[in-house]
Amino acid sequence: MTFETALSFFIAMLIFSITPGPGVFAIISRALVSGSKSCIGLTLGMIISDVLYLLLACFGLTTIADNWATLFNVIRYLGAAYLVFLGWKLINSRLDPEDLETGDANVKSAFFSGIVQGFLISASNPKVILFYISFLPSFMDLTSLSYSDITLVSVMASLALFIGVMGVALGAARLSKLVKTPKAYRTLNFGSGSIMIAVGSYLALNP
User: Fold this and answer.
1) Under the GO molecular function aspect, what terms does this record hold (predicted)?
2) In this structure, how many other beta carbons lie within 10 angstroms of the beta carbon of residue 97?
3) pTM: predicted TM-score of the whole model, two decimal places
């Protein structure tokens, strides 16, 4: 793999990571309510899913998608249902400003559940699947990559995704600091929860 190809791939993955979609909206919702630190697990879950799709693309994701369509649908519905549940839970929560000041324990306890959530969101996102099936093969011949190239591509993809997604999270978290009153926090919860429900519904209704 040439330096130009590697750099172009990194930039493409960075742009892909911040393109509006279920994952980005979920990150924004989480960051607005709980801060950027709470998005680390969510981001790692997305990265794990994306790298898995990247590896599958190197070994014929199109064939796998054709033969395992039912499994992909099950993952999509699980991700959609989980997002709707989290949105409903967020709308019915009673988060106040004081809760965010002492939220370190909550961040730690939600880390692993965030990984699961992020994995389901990314794995069930049609945009992610189409990206690795359609775009990457036209961008580079994934089937001809050596094992060292595949390792390099996976590391670069992970880094680009982490920078892009956490950049979105940091931006949303800074905006949330403008919210000062309990009423505003409740409005924020309702708005963020509604976004997550809408994203979950989109995943379920758009195969």
Assistant:
1) amino acid transmembrane transporter activity
2) 12
3) 0.74
Buried/exposed 160-183: b ≥16 CB within 10 Å, e otherwise = bbbbbbbebbeebbeebeebeeee
Number of domains present in the structure of the chain: 1
- Average pLDDT of each block of 10 consecutive residues along the chain (207 residues)? 79 86 81 83 92 80 58 71 77 56 52 84 76 72 76 91 93 74 68 75 71
What's the helix, strand, coil split of the chain in %, to 5? 85, 0, 15
184 domain-assigned? yes
Domain that holds residue 104: 24-205
How far apart CA 128 and CA 32 sit, in angstroms, is 24
In a domain, residue 69? The reply is yes
